[in-house]
Design brief:
The chain is mainly beta. The chain folds into two domains: 105 residues, Immunoglobulin-like, CATH 2.60.40.10; 396 residues, Pectate Lyase C-like (3 Solenoid), CATH 2.160.20. The strands form four sheets. Strands 14, 17, 18, 21, 22, 25, 26, 29, 30, 32, 33, 35, 38 and 41 form a 14-stranded parallel β-sheet that branches. Strand 3 and strand 4 form a beta hairpin.
């Protein structure tokens, strides 16, 4: 009997020990998982935890909580994400937390299961499990992912190779009509490269703004190789920011990569205003549609009733449609810029009061009504530009060289260096269609007013069609209509008439002052249908001189007559001919 009692007591002891151990190991928290959305390659899951213990007794560290995803077929782990790193929902109780995680890199049309796991006293515990299946939606234009709200755009990053369609117009304005901030969707990082297709189906995206500093401005930001954007309109967009390093920007995208395509995309009623400090040495490539085209196709696109206003310090490449363009010849992969137009107001200010000529800095403005800089392999055809270009180039050169000083060996050396730098490094290239052309431009037209102001620029090439054509450049079958247009230069204070109203001109903020303008230093200005033509290729142009021409007496090498007496043989499209006739009748 006594032996039985001892055995019974021992059994009770072990039982109590197991119960106590079990109670100590049992977590004070429970959790749930729910699937919000699946795509072809990702899942979005909401995870919740309720911790019944006080904060002092809590056994679960939220830093240990994870959502893990496994293949249903063999249990192979396919991905994971930390949860509860950011849980600020004010509706949650004191002992509750939730988080939404996205896990990418999954296989389409495949069964998975997810686990909510955490660590309790060095032991990994599973609080909840849920099954889900990825979809095939987005694998083709016949089975696309629909974008219906502004928030839906942020989900594109979960499947960067899918097909997307815009189901309706999207207005980013809030209830008060104020524009809503929208960060560029994509960048050139490996985790944010979009190579899919976005079809707007003719709908409009409107009333967003960008005011934060970005490397790639624009709705999409950066378009990677193979990306396609088509059939979408942008209206009422406002980009207004300060930037301190290299920048590309446009309403649609900052940079377009090789073999990407933008087709049937139109921008209206928008503004781009970007500035940098006066001492900054950054490069700005800004266009109404895109800032830099590095080898993509841009077809049947337009920018209209849009203003581009740039203030910077050193390098500017500005165009009504494209800031800088490079694709390939039409015979290679059909890459081109074609059947497009820009109707814009371009304002450019370049100021660099801190420039020291001893540093031999290159200062460069390249501006075109359609494209700023068309590089060696840039191909543009059947397109036109219209509007205004107002540019101002002001520097404090009198601080660098004072002609009033008596001649001395040091002064002679300063003057020689000043002459050398000015003649080779400080350039302004402005054209009604293209600022600088090193590629092939064929069958284009322009009707653009140009207003340039500078008391101290020394190398300037201005043209109704092109500022400069480099040795490799070709310009064929191009028409410039100057009827009702203005070609105006303010080169020194003597060119400003007494009591002249400069409101809304590029001279608006210019302080009239005595500038050195030494007689020994030749200021180089080339004006005409093409400002400066260095190409040996035949240039075929037709031009109607501007209605108003105002130039300095320093200019004597201008000619606003084209190389052809008629454009009847240019083979222009009906749409271009209609546009030219409208300019002539205006």
């Amino acid at each position: 009997m006594k032996r039985i009692s001892k055995i019974f007591l021992v059994a009770i002891f072990f039982t109590l020990t197991l119960v106590l151990f079990s109670c100590q190991s049992k977590p004070n928290a429970s959790g749930t998982l729910s699937v919000i959305e699946t795509t072809r390659t990702s899942v979005e899951i909401e995870a919740r935890i309720t911790d019944k213990a006080t904060s002092e007794d809590s056994q679960i560290a939220t830093s240990s909580v994870q959502v893990r995803v496994y293949l249903k077929s063999d249990g192979t782990q396919a991905g994971s994400a930390a949860a509860f790193n950011d849980s600020s929902d004010e509706s949650l109780g004191e002992n509750e937390a939730k988080d939404v995680v996205t896990i990418t890199g999954l296989k389409p049309d495949t069964m998975y299961y997810a686990e909510l796991v955490c660590t309790v006293k060095s032991e990994l515990l599973t609080l909840s499990t849920i099954d889900f299946k990825t979809t095939l939606t987005g694998d083709s234009l016949d089975n696309p992912i629909e974008i219906k709200t502004a928030d839906d755009f942020n989900k594109i990053k979960n499947d960067l190779t899918a097909y997307y369609v815009l189901a309706n117009d999207i207005d980013f304005a809030d209830a008060n009509g104020d524009k809503k901030e929208h960060k560029p969707l994509f960048s050139n990082s490996s985790s944010s490269k979009f190579t899919g297709v976005f079809d707007g189906q003719g709908h409009t995206i409107k009333n967003f703004k960008q005011s934060d500093s970005q490397s790639f401005y624009g709705f999409f930001g950066y378009l990677s190789e193979g990306a396609t954007i088509k059939n979408v309109n942008f209206d009422g967009v406002n980009i207004d920011s300060t930037r301190y390093s290299d920048t590309t920007g446009g309403i649609v995208a900052g940079t377009v990569s090789r073999n990407a395509r933008i087709e049937n995309v139109h921008v209206t009623n928008s503004t781009i205003k970007i500035s940098t400090s006066t001492s900054q040495t950054s490069r700005m490539k800004i266009g109404g549609l895109v800032g830099l085209n590095e080898g993509g196709s841009i077809v049947n696109c337009s920018v209209s009733t849009t203003t581009i206003d740039i203030t910077a310090a050193q390098y500017l490449y500005i165009g009504g449609l494209i800031g800088e363009n490079s694709n390939t010849s039409a015979t290679e992969a059909g890459l081109e810029v074609a059947d497009s137009f820009a109707s814009t107001e371009i304002k450019v200010r370049l100021r660099n009061e801190s420039t020291s000529f001893s540093e031999k800095k290159e200062i460069l403005i390249i501006v075109g009504g359609f494209v700023g800089n068309n590089l060696l392999d840039g191909y543009i055809t059947n397109s036109y530009s219209e509007g205004t270009i107002n540019a101002s180039f002001q520097m404090e050169l009198d601080k660098q060289y004072d002609k009033k000083e008596e001649t001395s060996s040091q002064n002679d050396e300063d003057k020689k260096h000043f002459d050398e730098v000015i003649d080779t490094r400080y350039n302004v290239e402005i054209g009604g269609f293209v600022g600088m052309n090193s590629g092939f431009i064929n069958k284009v037209a322009t009707s653009t007013s140009i207003d340039f102001t500078s008391f101290d620029a020394y190398v300037v090439d201005l043209g109704l069609i092109a500022g400069v054509i480099t040795p490799s450049g070709r310009l064929q079958n191009a028409v410039a209509i100057g009827a009702k247009q203005q070609f105006r230069l303010v080169l020194s204070k003597e060119d400003i008439k007494e009591n002249e109203d400069l409101t809304n001109t590029s001279s608006e903020n210019v302080t009239i002052q005595d500038q050195p303008n030494p007689d020994e230093i030749t200021r180089k200005f080339n004006l005409g249908v093409v400002g400066r033509n260095e190409s040996s290729n035949a240039t075929t142009t037709y031009a109607v001189a501007p209605s108003e021409v105002r130039m300095s007496i320093l200019i004597n090498n201008y000619n606003f007559k084209g190389t052809s007496d008629s454009y009847d043989e240019f083979g222009l499209s009906e749409s271009l001919l209609d546009k030219i006739n409208s300019w002539l009748k205006a």
